[in-house]
Amino acid sequence: MKDQLLAALKAHQNQVDYLEIRLEQREHTSLGFRGPLLDAVDRNFSLVGGVRACHRGGWSFVTFNRLSELLSRVAEAVAQAQLVGQATTHLASVPSVEATVPVQMEKDPRGVSLADKRALLAEYNQLLLAADPRIQTTMAGLSDTFRTVWFVNSTGTVLEQERLDVSGRFGVIARAGDVVRQGFASVHSRTSYGALEGIEEEVLGAAQRAVRQLEAQSVKGGQYTVVLDPYLAGVFIHEAFGHLSEADFIYENPRMQELLQLGKPIAHPSLSVVDDGTVPNQPGSYAYDDEGVPAQRKYLIKDGILTQRLHNLETASILNEQPTGNARALDATHPPLIRMTNTGILPGETSFTDMIKDIEEGIYAVRMLGGQTNGEMFTFAAAEGFMVRHGQLAEPVSDVTLTGNVFQTLQDVDAVGSDAVWLTGGCGKGGQSPLPVAVGGPHIRIKNVVVGGR
Predict the structure, then answer these.
(1) How many angstroms separate the CA atoms of 11 and 74, rounded?
(2) Which ranges constitute the DSSP H helices of 29-162?
(3) What contacts 202, CB < 8 A, 6 or more positions away?
């Protein structure tokens, strides 16, 4: 396979400033229940590819799904790049690499029958349906995908990388009168189908969270000291700050260039944030990105100081910084964009007990139900909430919506927990979704948060 790609590359690479070919072989299985009914079974095998060329600053991208089309598609990508390029190509220089990266697999999902997968999912779905009479319906799914990606480019990089993703997704909708609540749980592994076995407790957590919220009263809107659980802390830093660290967003936005100057104090000194594509067995991890750059750990914020941002080869050259290995494509039919990997807050030294002990009246916000960001501003709806009174967790509350300016909120973080974890997520950008990522962090405490209720 590599020889075919290299032959097609060499036939045209001298006609443009940069040329790459990506070929992906994919085996995928997924099953889904909605309520008591099995409503989706999908098994497929595909072979697809993409060619990306750059000439005089102009980019082109062409896809194909048959190897017989390879030479013509490469020629087409080269011609298109020559047509649109009218400036100067800016690409950072990185060492070429030749490598094969196999999956370190424990239990291969391809060796598990479809009947066994269905039986396992049916068992979990029934657990959710039977968890409480107020549960109206369920959404339960299992999927496994095994990929092999071949990549060659005109700078001499030749890669073959395997990737396994095994996922379970579980949700419920519960109702009491006019009150409707949702609960979700997910499980992910990069190494073993066994990660989906014996997870009854995690699955039931989705039902328990939805049912607890049925009994919660709507929170009174106001300004509070808020403690975020590790999941919500990780989602907050990913959505509200991580996307601002993607260099394509920065160099196209003069205001963000001013606000996001490297070396600038941007957060409380206790806060450090990383984007780390090297964490073992996490959905955002890989050996090399989709431009052939090694994955790295980047300190976006270190001790409150803005330290790094996320780059592909082009933005690293334009901003005179080092490539960070953050060019990622959803698959070979999409061009790589600057994307996060596993983004999280590093642990501090404060226990959860100490974090809440001096809060007279505050809120403990757990997980995320939904939200949006708009430049500097964010709004997140917590999946669950609890009042904190006189240093103790008190009654559950619902409709907890957190709103604020991300830069002010980073300054208002005044305690970072010692209990960091990584959790599975999916990210969307430029029509490519859901890209596998992880979000992480410990509990964090933020003062003066505007909280809206119903």
Answers:
(1) 9
(2) 70-84, 114-130
(3) 170, 185, 187
Residues 235-275: pLDDT tens digits? Answer: 999 999 999 999 998 887 888 888 899 999 999 999 999 99
- The C-alpha atoms of residue 372 and residue 381 are separated, in whole angstroms, by 9
Decide: helix, strand or coil at residue 256.
Answer: helix
Q: How far apart are CA 447 and CA 328, in angstroms?
A: 35
CA 293/CA 185 separation, integer angstroms: 33
Q: Which domain holds residue 369?
A: 218-452
Mean pLDDT score, 266-292:
96
User: What is the C-alpha separation between 190 and 285, in angstroms, rounded?
Assistant: 9
Q: Dmax of the chain from CA atoms?
A: 72
Contact yes or no for 18/91 (Cβ under 8 A): yes
Residues in CB range of 119: below 8 A, 6 or more apart: none
Across the range 382-387, mean pLDDT stands at 94
Question: What is the CB neighbour count within 10 angstroms for residue 114?
Answer: 11
Looking at the structure, tell me whether residues 157 and 292 fall in a common domain.
no
Number of domains in the chain: 2
pTM across the whole model: 0.94
Same domain, 210 and 236: no
Q: What angle do CA 429, 2, 61 make, to 5 degrees?
A: 35
